[in-house]
Amino acid sequence: MGTTFLLLSVFLACAVEAVEALTIVLAVGLTRGWRSALQGVAAGLLLLAAVVAVLGPALTVLPLKTLRLVVGGLLLTFGLQWLRKAILRASGYKDLRDEAAAYQRGVAAAQEAAADKKPLVDDWYAFTLSFKGVVLEGLEVAFIALTFGANQHDIPLAALAAVAAVLTVCAAGVAIKAPLARVPENTLKFAVAVMLTGFGTFWGAEGAGADWPGGDAFLPAVLAYVLLVAVGAVWVLKRRRAAWAS
User: Fold this and answer.
1) In sequence order, what are the residues at sequence separation of 6 or more whose Cβ sits closer than 8 angstroms to the Cβ of residue 44?
2) Position 222 pLDDT exceeds 80
3) Rounded distance between C-alpha atoms, residue 138 and residue 119, angstroms
4) Which tops the pLDDT comparison, 180 or 244?
5) How far is Cα 208 from Cα 117, in angstroms, rounded to an integer?
6) Fewer Cβ neighbours under 10 Å: the N or C end of the chain?
7) What is the C-alpha separation between 189 and 211, in angstroms, rounded?
8) What are the residues facing 121 on neighbouring strands?
9) Burial class of residue 182 in the structure, from the number of CB atoms within 10 Å of its CB (0-12 exposed, 13-18 middle, 19+ buried)
């Protein structure tokens, strides 16, 4: 996998997670004030930095086959969960992700929550919600950057792509002061799910001792196969749903 492919894959995957975290922070910050919300963001980023600092070096010392088996298995597990949800959304069995609706729900909850002051934090609700949003979505960002980067022996490059994705999303959110509802998030989630599943299958099989025809050049074929199966599953489920409706 070339440098461009690595950058694009990590950037897209991390951008999707950053959009969801941005929605949470915007809902809290614009409703209850930015000071406590940004304190929660800062605390979450510090925790994520510690996680990356610990796991990054640990992954780089693993032998290549072991690394690919571990990384491939993790990506495959993670990717299949994403792919299942993406297929259900695309076929109508699960509601599409709507950032505008999620933002409104966050605003309503923030308006109803009682104020609770803690030492160094004026609004504990705003702090904890921002912290949770950053950590939960950020852990997925860190996981994607670490696994892709470790497998390609270029964690700094993967981290750069992840940071670029987060900064791009944040800059867009600050500019419009609203959730990024126009981003085709559901389509991006589908594409990222296909990538994670395909990479997980490819690297996991290599780690288990399999030899792909043509080596890394066979990766696009694996991704195309995963995409074909996913699209086929959407088609079958749509037909079944239409049959039930009639």
Assistant:
1) 130, 131, 132, 133, 134, 135, 138
2) yes
3) 25
4) 244
5) 53
6) C
7) 29
8) 118
9) exposed
Q: Which of 185, 181, 45 is nearest to 102 (CA)?
A: 181
SS3 per-residue string spanning the chain: CCHHHHHHHHHHHHHHHHHHHHHHHHHHHHHHCHHHHHHHHHHHHHHHHHHHHHHHHHHHCCCHHHHHHHHHHHHHHHHHHHHHHHHHHHHCCCCCCCHHHHHHHHHHHHHHCCCCCECCECCHHHHHHHHHHHHHHHHHHHHHHHHHHHHCCCHHHHHHHHHHHHHHHHHHHHHHCCCCCCCCHHHHHHHHHHHHHHHHHHHHHHHCCCCCCCHHHHHHHHHHHHHHHHHHHHHHHHHHHHHHHC
Chain segment 83-97, per-residue pLDDT in tens: 999 999 998 888 877
Model confidence, pTM? 0.77
Q: Are 24 and 133 in contact (CB under 8 A)?
A: yes
User: At 71, which amino acid appears?
Assistant: V
**Segment 37-80, tens digit of pLDDT:** 899 999 998 988 888 888 777 777 777 678 778 888 888 888 89
Of residues 151, 136, 222, 163, the one with CA closest to residue 6? 151
- Distance, CA of 140 to CA of 143 (rounded, Å): 5
Residue 46 CA to residue 52 CA, distance in Å, equals: 10
- Is residue 227 within 8 Å of 194, Cβ to Cβ? yes
Structure-derived torsion over alpha carbons of residues 50, 51, 57, 59, reported in degrees to the nearest 10: 180
Nearest-angstrom CA–CA distance, 8 and 204: 21
